[in-house]
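Residues pack. Consider this:
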Amino acid sequence: MDKCYLVSYNGLSNAGGVERVCYYVSKIVKQKGYAVKVVDKDTIENYWLGKLVAFFFGKVPLLASCLLSGIYVIQKKKRGAIVITNGFNCPLACADMLFIHGTMKGHNTAIGVKKTFRSNLPIVYEKWAVNNAKNIIAVSHLAVQETKKFYQYQKDNFLVVNNMVDEHVYFPIAKAKDDVLKIVFCGRVEIRKGMDKLLELAHYIDMNSAKAKLIIATNNDMNIGELEKCDCVNIHVGLQQHQLNAFYNQGDVMYFPSMYEGFEMVTLEALSAGVPVLGNHVGAVLELYDRKELGVDIIKSPNNPADVLVQLEQQAEKYLTFKAKQELHNFYAEHYGIDAYIHKLDEVFTKITK
């Protein structure tokens, strides 16, 4: 049986979009008859070179792990094996399929990361990975444009496969309506995700006694201190995947003022749960809005919280009824659900390996 080396630093967990993509990729590859070896941080920490690095540095740093994963794959790979990698996490290997979930250069440019040797290394790694790859699978058309622009990449070996949502996990739940606008946000409370805009909106709601609440789900308690002081804010830290549908269903609308995304799954999850989205012109929000898909609108005055609140109210009004929410769910289940995604990936894999 031929082998597939699937490089994912965090393995196949539900930690984020990269890991969930790798989970479904591994399923398809197994169905095609390959034995899948997931090369994650544990693999590298137990690799003899990883142990050597840990001996001198006390651990295997992420950027060192990226280089070691390439050496590991090159050393282990036999004839007939295939290699699937993500972004900058395995720059030395020649990947049969490289998934681009957005670019590090695009990310750093969007949020104004200061140029240092350390911040530039992932960009260098990603450029190596792109130029070593036989085929590139991008999660969005913007990821393709960024790769060509930032890494001077001229080949046309790109295929675009948008991320997915598990429609069996995220669906509308019937609930009673009151006169308080429930605004949800799901993601890390950090600069890239627009934490300053969340705080501006929360302060405006409190100062104006507006009938609105901001409900936040985040995977850690970093940067939540100022938001916790706001009366209108309710924060959930560390919700598990099986708890997220109930979280989304608390909301009438999702606010997503992120500064940079690849093709974020939280937008698809909210929409599948029947919750419309108002966000910045980035990632999935950008592509869905430009395609005139259901339930998505763009923040028109991001620096004016009063206008943002009005727009959130207007967006919520469009999908107040359970029927409207169910229509939203059905649309995203059909076009971005698991079955549709697996079919697209299967087509890609067949095309690449034939």
Remarks:
- Residues 117-132 form the longest helix (16 residues).
- The chain has a mean pLDDT of 94.
- The longest strand covers residues 212-218.
- The chain has 15 helices and twelve strands.
